[in-house]
Design the sequence.
């Protein structure tokens, strides 16, 4: 992994090929296309089920480059129509890079489907699990401590599911990714928290226990079980070393991590200047300040709120849903900035030199800083 987090003043490189610096790597190097425009691939999607180490069946959504732009459009959970095709043949002529996405508290795997479809149009395979007991279809707030501990494993288990598909000669995704290449982890809110954990931050189990002592909800039994199984220990590492970059959006609850400096992969923390659920000053910026990973970036979206990171503003009442109200930047415009920034960051880490010209994007940014 190579690349950095430029200050935003970088000029266009004289070499406009956009190819990665390592020309010998043919496993996951799609041609560079500007991250502010849709990519060249038709997009397919499929809903499947992944087994988890906890014995839970995880609904997963997978988006992928398709061979042809023909077929019916997918309707997520038979509720919400998207713009991806429903289970077309995958384009596996070359191996594609992989990203695994973690949804927010009481969100769902396809909560930001437009960005996932956009990434797939650029040649990415994107996998997103439902964090069971924490979606808008099965949400149980009393189980949050158990869900918090399980979430990083949901991400790793979803990636494991993808690898079985990649190696299965009967799968539509056979040969679509390099099993040894790893993945980018990305998530929103509680999913941003999950992203930190997957990327390397160990849980402060005493902090979790303290919250459970104050509010002993049902899910605290998982915290008690952990202490019984790990006498004398106070931290739990649930990271996945296969994750090679991290992009937490509006991350929550960094206080529950014992050591944010344990994250060593490239990371871009993205927040919103008017977010009232994971505020810039108390959630986003402090989590970034605790990091030492290089490269690292901190991006603030302009006139945006917590739900600006999702496609749900068209489905939710504007009143009371931070980011959906009329005095915020239109959600569709925020998502264009978000997808441009997120894609440019991971392209940059892959060595595409031109990606730095979109770090930060030209529009929709309230703030930006980076350490290379």
Sequence:
């Amino acid at each position: 992994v190579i690349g950095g987090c430029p200050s935003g003043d970088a000029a266009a490189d004289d070499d406009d090929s956009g190819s990665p610096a390592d020309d010998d790597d043919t496993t996951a190097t799609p041609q560079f296309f500007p991250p502010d425009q849709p990519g060249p691939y038709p997009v397919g999607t499929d809903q499947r089920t992944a087994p988890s180490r906890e014995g839970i069946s995880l609904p997963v959504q997978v988006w992928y480059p398709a061979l042809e732009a023909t077929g019916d459009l997918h309707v997520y959970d038979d509720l919400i129509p998207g713009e991806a095709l429903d289970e077309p043949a995958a384009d596996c002529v070359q191996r594609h890079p992989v990203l695994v996405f973690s949804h927010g508290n009481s969100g769902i795997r396809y909560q930001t489907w437009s960005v996932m479809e956009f990434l797939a149009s650029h040649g990415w395979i994107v996998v997103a699990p439902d964090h069971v007991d924490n979606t808008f279809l099965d949400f149980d707030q009393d189980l949050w401590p158990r869900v918090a501990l399980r979430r990083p494993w949901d991400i790793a288990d979803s990636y494991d599911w993808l690898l079985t598909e990649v190696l299965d000669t009967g799968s539509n995704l056979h040969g679509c990714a390099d099993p040894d290449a790893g993945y980018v982890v990305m998530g929103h809110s509680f999913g941003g928290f999950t992203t930190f954990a997957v990327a390397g931050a160990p849980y402060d189990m005493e902090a979790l226990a303290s919250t459970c002592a104050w509010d002993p909800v049902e899910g605290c039994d998982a915290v008690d079980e952990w202490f019984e199984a790990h006498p004398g220990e106070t931290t739990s590492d649930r990271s996945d070393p296969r994750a090679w970059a991290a992009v937490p959006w509006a991350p929550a609850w960094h206080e529950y991590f014992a050591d944010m400096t344990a994250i060593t992969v490239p990371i871009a923390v993205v927040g919103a200047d008017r977010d009232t659920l994971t505020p810039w000053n108390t959630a986003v910026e402090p989590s970034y300040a605790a990091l030492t990973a290089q490269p690292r970036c901190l991006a603030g979206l302009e006139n945006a709120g917590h739900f600006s990171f999702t496609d749900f503003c068209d489905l939710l009442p504007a009143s009371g849903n931070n980011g959906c109200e009329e005095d915020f930047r239109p959600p569709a415009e925020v998502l264009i900035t978000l997808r441009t920034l997120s894609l440019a960051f991971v392209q940059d880490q892959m060595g595409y030199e031109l990606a730095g010209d979109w770090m930060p994007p030209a529009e929709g940014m309230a703030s930006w800083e980076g350490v290379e």
